[in-house]
Amino acid sequence: MKISAKAEYACLAILALARRRPVDPPIRIREISENHGIPERYLVQILLQLKGAGLVASTRGASGGYRLARSAASISLGEVLTAIDGPDSPPRESSRPANQVLASVWEDVRIAERSVLDKTTIAQLAERTLPHEWVI
Q1: What's the confidence (pLDDT) of residue 132?
Q2: First to last CA, the chain
Q3: In whole angstroms, what is the distance from residue 115 CA to residue 74 CA?
């Protein structure tokens, strides 16, 4: 599986937003950019795509910024990747038996991959990024 830099940056931005509580003010682009090493101008484009997909919402003004448009538990990693890179491309057609056999394996891999991405929520990933307190 290949993940574009743009898609990875989008996932990092979504995770930054997911770690905020609903009562917290919106997070500014500069904060996400500095904390995750994402070029600010590139991040603006990414957030606009995520906004267009209904995953993030923006607030204008001095206290403006970005927040998740829905709960992190209702956003899948697959949705984020699709919002940035578009839907999966269809498999190549071929009439040759060997190509068809390989194509069926590639399709099985794609389906398994998609299943993992669609079952993994942003809330689950955000939870995994929190520091754990160990009690002994």
Answers
A1: 66
A2: 40
A3: 15
How far apart (Å, rounded) are the C-alpha atoms in residues 17 and 66?
7
* pLDDT value of position 133: 66
- Residues 6 or more apart whose CB falls under 8 angstroms from that of 85 comprise 4, 6, 7
For residues 135 and 44, the model is more confident at 44
Indicate the length of the chain as a whole number.
Answer: 136
Close Cβ partners of 101 (under 8 Å, ≥ 6 residues apart): none
Phi and psi for 22 in degrees, rounded to 5? -55, -30
How far is the C-alpha of 89 from the C-alpha of 16, rounded, in Å? 29
d(CA 34, CA 7): 18
Q: What does pLDDT average to over the chain?
A: 90
- Are 105 and 32 in contact, with CB atoms under 8 Å apart? no
DSSP letter assigned to residue 74: G
Structure tokens at 103: 């194509």
Section 46-54 average pLDDT? 97
